[in-house]
């Protein structure tokens, strides 16, 4: 099996890369920074797997086109393409800088779609988020990018033979949540990224197409479906805190 994972140098992406490599896959590791990609690649090779790190900024259309061309020279078709890299651009909607809006839409939505069109893999795995299904203050842009990618994925699987898997990680200990905790002083329970990545891959290999890992997300999704007004009233009550939490800078 040959798979490509974006954002594979750190967090959940790195954990999924290591978990897939354990199953004998060759993994193409994509990210902006070379160092974390090399580190992930060396963990994979130490464990007997194969990795190909490629530096690429997904917000840059030309870089994404070059990435696709490089891969097509070596492989006819990928078995798996995991859209994991994402920018969390949160905070008050009216204060989001235009450049951040464009970078987020390019990185989280447009260029993953563009990359998929270039590569036409057998399976696409989308790393989603709770906020694509539950409208949360402070997440308008992030939630748009995640929800739109999921909607695109569902339409893609309805139209083509490409299988689409959606995975919803719980709140997980990574750079994204570390920044939130540091800037707001709030502490919340966080899952280990190694376990989250491992579970997503296990459930993908078991054939699941909608992977919701935490019981609290399952409950929230059900509440959102059957009692949306209650959920919205509760979230609105904590609007200011949530805007501050989601607006934590991660770069
Ligand atoms: N952590 C959570 O609680 C949580 C919960 C639900 C969903 N998620 C989702 O899980 C996914 C992984 O996030 P994470 O929590 O593991 O955080 P993370 O460790 O910060 O991972 C994000 C990865 O994306 C890469 N990346 C960011 N912008 C990029 C760009 N323009 N081009 C290429 N690569 C880029 C980063 O690498 P470089 O900086 O080197 O480019 C990094 O490796 C994201 O889609 C996130 O929305 C996370």
TrEMBL record:
<keyword id="KW-0560">Oxidoreductase</keyword>
<dbReference type="InterPro" id="IPR002347">
    <property type="entry name" value="SDR_fam"/>
</dbReference>
<dbReference type="Pfam" id="PF00106">
    <property type="entry name" value="adh_short"/>
</dbReference>
<dbReference type="InterPro" id="IPR036291">
    <property type="entry name" value="NAD(P)-bd_dom_sf"/>
</dbReference>
<dbReference type="InterPro" id="IPR057326">
    <property type="entry name" value="KR_dom"/>
</dbReference>
<protein>
    <recommendedName>
        <fullName>Ketoreductase domain-containing protein</fullName>
    </recommendedName>
</protein>
<feature type="domain" description="Ketoreductase">
    <location>
        <begin position="1"/>
        <end position="171"/>
    </location>
</feature>
<comment type="similarity">
    <text>Belongs to the short-chain dehydrogenases/reductases (SDR) family.</text>
</comment>
């Amino acid at each position: 099996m040959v798979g490509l994972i974006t954002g594979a140098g750190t967090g959940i992406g790195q954990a999924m890369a290591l978990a897939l490599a354990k199953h004998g896959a060759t993994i193409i590791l994509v990210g902006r920074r070379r160092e974390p990609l090399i580190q992930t690649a060396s963990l994979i090779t130490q464990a007997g797997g194969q990795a190909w790190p490629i530096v690429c900024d997904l917000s840059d259309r030309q870089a994404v086109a070059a990435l696709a061309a490089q891969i097509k020279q070596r492989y006819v078709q990928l078995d798996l393409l995991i859209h994991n890299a994402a920018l969390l651009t949160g905070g008050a909607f009216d204060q989001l800088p235009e450049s951040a809006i464009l970078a987020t839409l390019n990185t989280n939505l447009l260029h993953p779609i563009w990359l998929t069109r270039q590569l036409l893999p057998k399976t696409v795995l989308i790393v989603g988020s709770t906020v694509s299904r539950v409208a949360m203050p402070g997440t308008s842009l992030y939630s748009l990018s995640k929800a739109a990618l999921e909607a695109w994925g569902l339409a893609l699987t309805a139209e083509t033979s490409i299988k689409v898997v959606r995975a919803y990680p719980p709140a997980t200990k990574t750079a994204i949540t570390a920044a939130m905790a540091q800037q707001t002083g709030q502490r919340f329970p966080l899952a280990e990224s190694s376990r989250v990545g491992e579970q997503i891959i296990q459930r993908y290999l078991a054939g699941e197409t909608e992977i919701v890992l935490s019981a609290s997300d399952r409950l929230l999704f059900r509440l959102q479906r059957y009692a949306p007004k209650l959920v919205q009233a509760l979230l609105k009550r904590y609007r200011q805190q949530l805007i501050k939490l989601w607006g934590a800078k991660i770069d």
